[in-house]
TrEMBL record:
Organism per entry: Paenibacillus foliorum
Coiled coil regions, renumbered to chain: none
Protein's recorded name: Oxidoreductase
Domain Gfo/Idh/MocA-like oxidoreductase N-terminal as annotated: residue spans: 57-136
One Gene Ontology molecular-function label: nucleotide binding
Entry-linked Pfam families: GFO_IDH_MocA
């Protein structure tokens, strides 16, 4: 297959994906990458053997970010040949775009020019954080737009054994998963950690916390109670998973961020090559309902919010 050309578009505070994702495709300049404002990125990149770092079959050829100077720096770090003045400038130049921002209410407008031009889009998590925009994304997909969105935690290798089978645990009665930072931007990391294990069937959400300390109880049709915690400063507990059943229990923690990022991006490249989504878009819709329900419950004093209240179309 020919080499796919991709564009990286957008950068917001607290999200260094333009640096790391571009390096996973293109390789990087180690000396300049040391100047990256996210010091964890050069540390996990340097652990990877050079022959295993990059994704074959695709490269980042264009970049635009909200601040031109940031795009210039990412381009130097991650060997991107073209910095463009406007995101729309990449239309006709690339085979797909990566929207590398994680503020959900911005994503419809960031995606719109590419959806309307028929360019495939990968949207960083969360796809959206509100019902109105979820309806728009669902309409676009229904009408044939090629849109994919996920958290890298869907591909966490430490959780893969439980995606394959939870039979030995018996019937699940309680599960939990944790993250730091905000519910609106990072809650999806926790949700998408556990969703591929339990599968569709979430019924309701009840958030008994605050904007800085979200404790959300979900009810699942088959697998009982699921508690998801997103606490602003809980940096010591990103990606902790617990599964408790009638016959056994299991616990696991994210260890290899690079693996999750690379596997996520490989899934998008495979989608571009084959036209087949790696998972149904209906899963993304349900995850967005869960995220929105958690916010709505918190804002309404801890009310139990039924997911069926939130329509995707």
């Amino acid at each position: 297959m020919r080499q796919l050309k991709l564009a990286v578009l957008g950068m917001v505070d607290g999200n260094g994906h333009p640096y790391s994702w571009s390096a996973i495709f293109n390789g990087y300049n180690p000396q300049i990458m040391e100047e990256c404002p996210y010091p964890g990125i050069p540390r996990y990149l340097e652990k990877e053997p050079k022959e295993k770092l990059q994704i074959p079959g695709a490269c980042i050829t264009h970049i635009w970010t909200d601040k031109r100077e940031e795009a210039e720096h990412v381009a130097q770090c991650s060997l991107i040949p073209n910095v463009v003045e406007r995101p729309e400038d990449v239309i006709g130049q690339v085979d797909g775009v990566l929207i590398t921002t994680d503020i959900g209410f911005e994503h419809v407008e960031r995606c719109r020019p590419f959806v309307e031009a028929g360019v495939p889009v990968f949207v960083d998590k969360p796809l959206t954080d509100n019902e109105c925009d979820l309806k728009q994304f669902s309409r676009w997909v229904r009408d044939g737009a090629r849109i994919m969105s996920s958290s890298c935690m869907r591909y966490c290798k430490e959780f893969m054994p439980y995606r394959a089978s939870i039979h030995e645990l018996g019937e699940l009665r309680f599960s939990s998963v944790t993250t730091f930072k905000s519910w609106e931007r990072y809650g999806i990391h926790a949700l998408e950690s556990i969703y591929p294990i339990l599968g569709p069937g979430f019924i309701s959400a009840q958030n008994s916390g605050t904007k800085e300390r979200n404790i959300v109880l979900f009810k699942h049709r088959i697998h009982g109670d699921v508690v998801v915690a997103a606490i602003e400063d809980m940096y010591g507990a990103f990606g902790l998973l617990q599964l408790c059943g009638t016959k056994g229990n299991a616990a696991a923690a994210l260890q290899d961020t690079f693996y999750s990022f690379k596997a996520q991006l490989e899934a998008f490249v495979s989608y571009l090559q084959t036209g087949e989504l790696p998972f149904p878009f209906s899963e993304t819709e349900e995850l967005m309902r869960m995220l929105i329900a958690g916010t709505r419950s918190r804002e309404e004093g801890g009310r139990v919010v039924m997911l069926e209240e939130i329509t995707a179309d």
